[in-house]
Design goal:
93 residues, alpha+beta, Alpha-Beta Plaits, 4-stranded antiparallel sheet
């Protein structure tokens, strides 16, 4: 399984109500169930006009199928090659 970051242009995303965000979450979970394939939605980050989602899947095609089932836009899909954070700067860890 690979990790992907999915960028979705969604004008007004930052203005979505908690109820609308909950509905998006449910739609995503329903689409995952309909896939009937190994798939994990990790989390999403909502910004002004975009949503950035982290998903774990076998390949990009499965990500696109999830989006099709959920009627979600996809602007880019990028496979995560490495993850770093502030702790990686400490050579003594």
């Amino acid at each position: 399984m690979k990790k992907f970051v999915v960028e979705r242009n969604l004008p007004g995303a930052g203005n979505l109500s908690p109820e609308e965000l909950q509905a998006l979450s449910k739609t995503s979970c329903d689409a995952i169930m309909a896939l009937n394939k190994p798939y994990h939605w990790v989390q999403s980050f909502i910004t002004g006009d975009k949503i950035y989602c982290v998903h774990i899947a076998e390949n990009e095609a499965v990500i696109r199928e999830h989006a099709r089932l959920g009627k979600f836009p996809i602007n880019t899909i990028s496979e995560v090659i490495a993850v770093i954070d502030a702790q990686d700067s400490n050579p003594l860890k």
